[in-house]
Design goal:
The chain has 133 residues and is mostly helical. The protein is built from four helices and no strands. Its main location: membrane.
């Protein structure tokens, strides 16, 4: 079966628009027609009729899939060495924050907070010791 090729005609260069002659004038805009009035014997659309008593309403929508299983993918926690390294870095700047990331609000956090308030250096030493142990 032979395929036929369609060849488009060559494109013609566009010519710039010609200027209007000096004696030519534009046509004045035409006024719009006034809106037409509704005929006197015309009536509006009839009001909607109430539903008959024997008619039934549409059934409620059914779920598309029954007993569907939803799978939630939770990313794994960072490796323990990464968490420990991050906590140690934070322990040098804000000792209670480094301990909080590892132990949350357990007793280690509160001891570190009190030591940091009393003197900064004991807070750092305790935070490093608790995080490494």
């Amino acid at each position: 079966m032979a395929e036929s090729a369609v060849i488009a005609p060559p494109l013609q260069p566009m010519t710039p628009p010609q200027p209007m002659a000096e004696n030519a004038t534009e046509a004045p805009p035409q006024p719009m027609a006034p809106p037409q009035q509704m005929a006197e014997n015309a009536t509006a659309a009839p009001p909607p009729q109430p539903m008959a008593e024997n008619a039934t309403a549409a059934p409620p929508p059914q779920p598309m899939v029954e007993n569907a299983t939803v799978v939630v993918v939770v990313p794994p926690p960072p490796p323990d060495s990464t968490t420990t390294f991050l906590c140690l870095i934070l322990a040098f700047f804000l000792p209670p924050l480094g301990v909080f990331l590892k132990y949350k609000c357990e007793i280690e956090f509160w001891i570190c907070l009190i030591l940091t308030f009393l003197a900064y250096a004991p807070g750092i030493i305790y935070a490093v010791w608790v995080i490494v142990k």
